[in-house]
Amino acid sequence: MGSAVLRRALLALLLATGAVVFLGHQAAYAECSEVYNPETGEFELDCSDDGADPVGGDPDTGGSSTCTNAGSEIPCTGPNGSAWSSAHGCYVGAVWDPGGEGDQPPPGETKKDGGWHICYFPPPGSSWEPVWIENGTVTIDPVVLANRAIVSMNLDPITIGIVPESGANRVGLVGLPVWMWVDNQTANTWGPITRSASEGPVSVTATATVSSVIWNMGDGTKVNCTGPGTPYADNYGKQESPTCGHRYAMMSTDQPDGAYQVTATSHWVVAWSGAGQSGIIELDLTTNPLPIRVGEGQVLTQ
What we know:
- There is one protein chain.
- The chain has 302 residues and is mainly β.
- The protein has 2 domains: 3-139, no CATH class; 144-300, no CATH class.
- Helices cover 10% and strands 40% of the residues.
- The chain has helices spanning 3-17, 142-153, 297-300; strands spanning 22-24, 27-29, 33-37, 42-46, 67-69, 72-74, 83-85, 90-96, 114-121, 127-134, 159-163, 172-173, 177-183, 193-199, 202-216, 222-225, 245-247, 260-274, 277-286, 290-292, 294-295.
- The chain starts with a helix and ends with a helix.
């Protein structure tokens, strides 16, 4: 059996059994990729082999990340966790090291010079072949590194600050001002926060900042606040919030558990640069629902 045929046969066997370990130049490519889950507000590991986006993002915001090939957008992650390499025009996957004839380097090369890698050609997984790659020549797309930098930021949804407060013995009044703000503001919940990621000679730096918060008040109203809001203080009395507020027009008694379920979705804008390129990645993080009870004054005094 020829060496090329042997390589393909062994590769098919490894892919079928899931025994492939993905390695880039002097670094490991995990078979899993980090995927943002907008329902939980967390980055999670996705071990599927469908070329999942490393960040994902809310479909309403266009937050997903893509790489480019010949002017067209393609996913940054290919089959079996392979990573897009602009320099080689393919998704660089497993290092080919089965031993024997199929592992021999090309004429004039040695095993110390590089190694055989699996290259999947776009569209993801449409075709592949073993390709000899010299050490230090694997160039990962900077968008992939930008996504890694985002994962390392450990971004969190905001902590809701609101008056009327949430609680079994707390009730707001119809028509009175509601104040909303970001409580316990930190770099992880509001920004700016900066992190870097590197792969071989390529390094990318990303800075994330919240640009706005969409408050879903549970009564069908959404309030877009471009700042963190103003914390309420007792001396404000019945004044409206100068930065982020709402008024309920009806009691919450007909709502589940007798309360409006309030959530806050922070919209993150991440600016990244590196390897002579730059870009913007956007993503949303949403809090768990917070119950707010609203009644009428005459009901409360009876």
